[in-house]
Amino acid sequence: MTTILVTGGAGYIGSHTVIELVNAGYEPIIYDNFYNAKKTVLKRINTILGREVKCIEGDIRDAQKLDLVFSQNKIDGVINFAGLKAVGESVKMPLEYYDNNVNGARVLLSAMLKHNCKNFIFSSSATVYGEPDSVPLTENSPLKRANCPYGQTKVDIEYMCQELQVAHNDFSMVLLRYFNPVGAHKSGLIGEDPKGVPNNLMPYLTQVAVGRLKELSIFGNDYPTKDGTCIRDYIHVVDLALGHVAALKHCLNKPGCHIYNLGTGTGYSVLDMVKAFSKAIGYELPHKFAPRRAGDVVECYADPSKAKNELGWVATRTLDDMTFDSYNWQKNNPNGYED
Ligand code: NAD
Ligand code: UD1
């Protein structure tokens, strides 16, 4: 049995990945400080799987606790989802972001080294590419200095991982650059439950649909795109979770630094998303045009061919799957996990 410590495993992407890990025959252990997760998610995961998944409450910056976890469990690899991810908040609290994300990853990697665990998968982001010079983005597209502390923590952790892999070349280091994760598990039991008013498009759409918010403001309709709104590569969270399973299968105990884009390769505009979402709910979602949002890139989508060729992974879920599953989750849980 291959045991994987899933830090941040109670969060949005982590919870979906835990399910796909079990489905693929891996044994996950969730390690989360519940800063941005609710305990109910654990019950929901167990309901979906029909069995209990082990969970340890803890912080990735807590070296002593991690020491205990690695001593008491035979851990073959770590997937690190633990991190703070709100762009606006990161501008207001940069030190907290560098501490939680960069220092957290450093403490976690130190514990792994100490316990001779040399398989690490890191949740990176397309944000490391900044404003792209050209699209689609390949893994060789240049990294840019990020326009907010959150994004910069991703760039910094990527460099730290690569440098550690040079120093310890028996390490298998996997950097997965996610494009825009949306959607939810088919059951409608787990999904995205952001704190406060959502910053991201899909949770905003779902909260308008259930009446928690009045209407969507579309940030900018004068961009140089087909309809004037920004283009993104939205990817279903279950496809993303399966990308982690594929990376694990391919890279476990394979020394090196392995970098993959996880996206669909298709860009949709904000208006495409509103149209698709309106189709899922059966009426036109209330929306209006608003000024551009500072820091937005115009167009960002992946060339996912490296993941296809090397991992045998492709995203198969459609835009209709993404909008339907997101809405299904929110409809069943209008106020999220509620604990
Ligand atoms: P999330 O907030 O739902 O999940 C993160 C989890 O980590 C939460 O359960 C939180 O409680 C936990 N956590 C935070 N700090 C911790 C710490 N110090 N110790 C232990 N646990 C801690 O976020 P998500 O959307 O599931 O994202 C997971 C990862 O993927 C993050 O690193 C995020 O930056 C990255 N990512 C997310 C997106 C996205 O759009 N959701 C895009 C690209 C990259
Ligand atoms: C944002 C972050 C990015 C982070 C990612 C995942 C910014 C500038 N970028 O990316 O760093 O990695 O989330 O957490 O915040 N939109 C609206 N109205 C809304 C919300 C969004 O029109 O209420 C538009 C945005 O302008 C954008 C698109 O929808 O064009 C997608 O936005 P979002 O879901 O926030 O993702 P990103 O901008 O790609």
Automatic annotation (TrEMBL):
Q: Which GO terms describe its molecular function?
A: UDP-glucose 4-epimerase activity
Which reactions fall under this protein's catalytic activity? UDP-alpha-D-glucose = UDP-alpha-D-galactose
InterPro entries referenced in this protein's UniProt entry, alphabetically: NAD(P)-bd_dom, NAD(P)-bd_dom_sf, UDP_G4E
Domain NAD(P)-binding: residue ranges: 5-322
Which keywords are on file for this protein?
Answer: Carbohydrate metabolism, Isomerase, NAD
Query: Which pathway features in its UniProt record?
Result: Carbohydrate metabolism; galactose metabolism
Q: What class of enzyme is it?
A: isomerase
EC numbers? 5.1.3.2
> What assembly does the database describe for this protein?
Homodimer.
Q: Which family does it belong to?
A: Belongs to the NAD(P)-dependent epimerase/dehydratase family.
What PANTHER family does the record point to?
A: UDP-GLUCOSE 4-EPIMERASE
**What protein name does the entry list?**
UDP-glucose 4-epimerase
What is the scientific name of the source organism? Succinivibrio faecicola
